[in-house]
Amino acid sequence: MATADVTIMGAGAFGLSIAWECARRGARVRVCEAARIGAGSSGGIVGALAPHVPEQWNAKKQFQFDSLLMAEGFWAGVGAAGGADPGYLRSGRVQSIADEAALALARGRSLGAAALWHGQALWEVVAAVEDGWLPKTPTGYLIRDTLTARLHPRQAGIALTAAIRARGGRIEEGVAMPDGTAPVIWATGAAGLADLGATLGKTVGGPVKGQAALFACPGVATRPQLFVDGVHIVPHADGTVAVGSTSERDFDGADRVDEKLDPVIEKARAACPALGDAPVIERWAGLRPRARSRAPMLGAWPGRAGHFIANGGFKIGFGMAPKVAQVMADLVLEGRDAIPDGFRVEDSL
């Protein structure tokens, strides 16, 4: 068996995306997953790839903006290489505006987007219309952005797996520890944050439970995403609409769905007319890795030569994945450090 140029521990959004980027550049790649592909939050159902608001701009927002702009080409390359559709569509997003204060804030942010996004995407205030999909809004206005995209998380995992294998990469399930030589990139999600904290003797982050629901709702696959009252409503190409999610710091049962999901479902039905009578066909729960800095943790593992960390995707793992893959491949394969301040491992220590 050929020796890998780089071993990636973890087959979630970050791990598989980094593996694909390394393989695309010609590296021999091995991915090791302790459980199964997409076992953690990357096996969820929502898949909202949405930007931060265009104000108080910082390195984190710029990094995510760049990643969202990269996403269409990144996922098209994944699909072409492996022949599996990741479910990507830059569908845009619509948000309700609750009152006059929120309307004034939204108009200010539209000016911010014009200055910060440089015409590569729009964030604008538009008059509301009733068409059976768009939400009702007390002010008569909505926020519309053209940067938000959707991805089907499970299909994306399948597509990345196929693409990596098409480039000669190996993906092995049931392997919790590397048995080869460095470099090794640890992209092991919530469990990985706990392991890193135990090794370093300090808390570097922790899991946040999320619960989401999947509706059967054909005929809306190309409609924009909605964000209403803190709830993401994401139509997928397979005739489903994903709704989520909760953010639970204190919880019982990592994958146990309970009554905390019910208000999310109720808010979605109230906000979106098309979901009023649509049946819920799946309820999902899982743990998302949140670093102390709330930004991804990227870079060298302190005190462990040849080992690197890519963790802390939290709610934006798939949205950040193309850019995370790029900077980690730059670092590990080429020795070029392009990780922005705020994203480094030491920022969460």
From TrEMBL:
Keywords attached to this entry: Oxidoreductase
Keyword Cell division: no
UniProt domain FAD dependent oxidoreductase: residue ranges: 5-331
GO cellular component terms listed in the entry, alphabetical order: cytoplasm
InterPro entries: FAD-dep_OxRdtase, FAD/NAD-bd_sf
Residues making up the signal peptide according to the UniProt record: none
GO molecular function: oxidoreductase activity
Pfam family, one: DAO
Keyword Oxidoreductase: yes
Protein name: Glycine oxidase
Classification of source organism: Bacteria, Pseudomonadati, Pseudomonadota, Alphaproteobacteria, Rhodobacterales
